[in-house]
Automatic annotation (TrEMBL):
<keyword id="KW-0028">Amino-acid biosynthesis</keyword>
<protein>
    <recommendedName>
        <fullName>Diaminopimelate decarboxylase</fullName>
        <ecNumber>4.1.1.20</ecNumber>
    </recommendedName>
</protein>
<dbReference type="GO" id="GO:0030170">
    <property type="term" value="F:pyridoxal phosphate binding"/>
</dbReference>
<feature type="binding site">
    <location>
        <position position="314"/>
    </location>
    <ligand>
        <name>substrate</name>
    </ligand>
</feature>
<dbReference type="GO" id="GO:0008836">
    <property type="term" value="F:diaminopimelate decarboxylase activity"/>
</dbReference>
<feature type="binding site">
    <location>
        <position position="230"/>
    </location>
    <ligand>
        <name>pyridoxal 5'-phosphate</name>
    </ligand>
</feature>
<dbReference type="InterPro" id="IPR002986">
    <property type="entry name" value="DAP_deCOOHase_LysA"/>
</dbReference>
<dbReference type="Pfam" id="PF02784">
    <property type="entry name" value="Orn_Arg_deC_N"/>
</dbReference>
<dbReference type="GO" id="GO:0009089">
    <property type="term" value="P:lysine biosynthetic process via diaminopimelate"/>
</dbReference>
<keyword id="KW-0457">Lysine biosynthesis</keyword>
<feature type="modified residue" description="N6-(pyridoxal phosphate)lysine">
    <location>
        <position position="56"/>
    </location>
</feature>
<feature type="binding site">
    <location>
        <position position="275"/>
    </location>
    <ligand>
        <name>substrate</name>
    </ligand>
</feature>
<keyword id="KW-0456">Lyase</keyword>
<comment type="subunit">
    <text>Homodimer.</text>
</comment>
<keyword id="KW-0210">Decarboxylase</keyword>
<feature type="domain" description="Orn/DAP/Arg decarboxylase 2 N-terminal">
    <location>
        <begin position="31"/>
        <end position="278"/>
    </location>
</feature>
<feature type="binding site">
    <location>
        <position position="342"/>
    </location>
    <ligand>
        <name>substrate</name>
    </ligand>
</feature>
Length: 419
């Protein structure tokens, strides 16, 4: 069981809404800091443990600043993400470029920033060298294919567009060595929103063995092994939080068993977790606009799928509560919807909830990663504001809501005033 507790009382929330109308995402700084500290503490045994926060999860410089001050770097996958990290003061090897199908300008910016470049394909070696030059530190993303077939936890890597095959990995490092690169890392990302602890051991074991083989065959001692993101969070209250300490203890055992005897005692362990860092500490707050009764009971919010795409896109569960009614019995069944002209624009389907009234505030949980950042403008919907609930209890606007002017800003070829 995981506890789903919003950090503000209903009356405190109303005060915030007086100043910042709904919908908005609000992030809990204190909880994010504590969580970041917990990850570093769990891996304190690992030499030079690193976390590159996956910027795509919540690309807000204020959040990155907080994570940076807790020791995180940035995992970037686009030019704007690289610039965003740099503007936050995350530079050099605190940045890892892990994109795929990567354009030249991303490679150029990464080289300019002194970032670690993680290549997604063997053919990118020549492309990188021709378009941007070679970096000091290079890593390659491993796709194990069906090597670990039958492991239903990891899924089907051979169906994924990412990474190099096993044979290509050996060839790629040999080429890079030949080209004079001296510093290397190893990367993979084969799990997503994973709650099973043993999935992380499986990944670590696979990567440690590969690092040992690369050392034996090519004489390369990996500086780091990046195990990717993919640490899950309990979206459903009945799910349990991932036990980071247990994951760490298992990885430590494997490190001692596989890495140390091979003389790889300096290789650093890295993650590029997004969801598990900020996910549970962001909330989408919306207001009930309408109640509609047809074949079902619908509660219509002032937020839509444009503010949180996961339920509509993946059928993902997001817990939600009605502010001030947390302790009322859930005796009604509702579909909670947005206003998009798409029937999948529902935050909840057949959800048991207390009786809802128009004007109620709905708090949707676990929107701190892959929430606001997946927003879009379909149907002329505007992206919401982002707020930070600071450690001292005050609230800071960290992204204003989009306006109609923003929506029109990129349009060309029409004359006249907008409004
Ligand atoms: C999306 C992504 C992550 C972060 O995934 P989470 O589920 O947020 O932990 C990390 N690395 C890469 C390469 C990704 O694409």
């Amino acid at each position: 069981m995981s506890k789903k507790i919003f950090p503000l009382q209903a009356d405190e929330l109303e005060k915030i809404i007086e100043k910042y109308p709904t919908p908005f995402h609000i992030y809990d700084e204190k909880a994010i800091r504590a969580n970041m500290k917990r990850l570093f503490k769990a891996f304190a045994w690992a030499p030079g443990f690193r976390e590159y926060y996956a910027v795509k999860a919540a690309p807000n410089p204020r959040l990155l600043q907080i994570l940076k001050s807790e020791g995180a770097g940035a995992d970037c996958s686009s030019l704007p993400e690289l610039i965003l990290a740099a503007k936050t003061g995350i530079t050099g090897e605190k940045i890892m470029l892990t994109s795929n199908d990567t354009p030249a300008d991303e490679f150029q910016k990464a080289i300019e920033l002194g970032a670690i470049i993680n290549l997604d394909d063997i053919s990118h070696i020549d492309y990188l060298e021709a378009n941007a030059g070679l970096p000091k530190v290079i890593s390659f993303r491993y796709n194990p294919g069906s090597v670990i077939e039958g492991n239903d936890i990891i899924g089907k890597p051979e169906e994924a567009k990412y990474g190099l095959t096993r044979e290509q990995m050996f060839a790629a490092y040999a080429i890079m060595k030949e080209k004079g690169i001296k510093r290397f890392g190893l990367h993979t990302m084969v799990i997503s929103n994973e709650l099973h602890e043993n999935a992380f051991s499986t990944t670590a074991e696979m990567m440690f063995k590969l690092a040992v083989e690369l050392k034996e065959k090519l004489g390369i001692a990996m500086e780091f092994i990046n195990l990717g993101g993919g640490i899950g969070i309990p979206y459903r209250p009945e799910e349990n939080e991932v036990n980071l300490e247990a994951i760490s203890a298992n990885i430590k055992k494997l490190y001692e068993k596989i890495m140390l005897p091979a003389g790889l005692n300096k290789t650093e362990i890295a993650f590029e977790s997004g969801r598990a860092i900020t996910g549970p500490y962001g909330y989408l707050v919306a207001t009930v606009l309408h109640e509609k009764k047809t074949y079902k009971d619908y509660i219509g919010l002032d937020a839509s799928m444009a503010n949180l795409m996961r339920p509509g896109m993946y059928g993902a569960y997001h817990h939600l509560v009605i502010a001030g009614k947390e302790n009322e019995p859930s005796t009604y069944t509702y579909d909670v919807t947005g206003s998009l002209c798409e029937n999948c624009d529902k935050f909840a389907v057949d959800r048991k909830l207390p009786k809802i009234a128009i004007g109620d505030r709905v708090i949707i949980f676990d929107t701190g990663a892959h929430g606001h950042s997946m927003g879009f403008n379909y149907n002329g919907k505007l992206r919401s504001a982002e707020l930070l609930l600071k450690e001292d209890g005050s609230v800071e606007l960290i992204r204003r809501a989009e306006t109609i002017d923003d929506y029109f800003a990129t349009l060309r070829g029409f004359k006249g005033s907008i409004i």
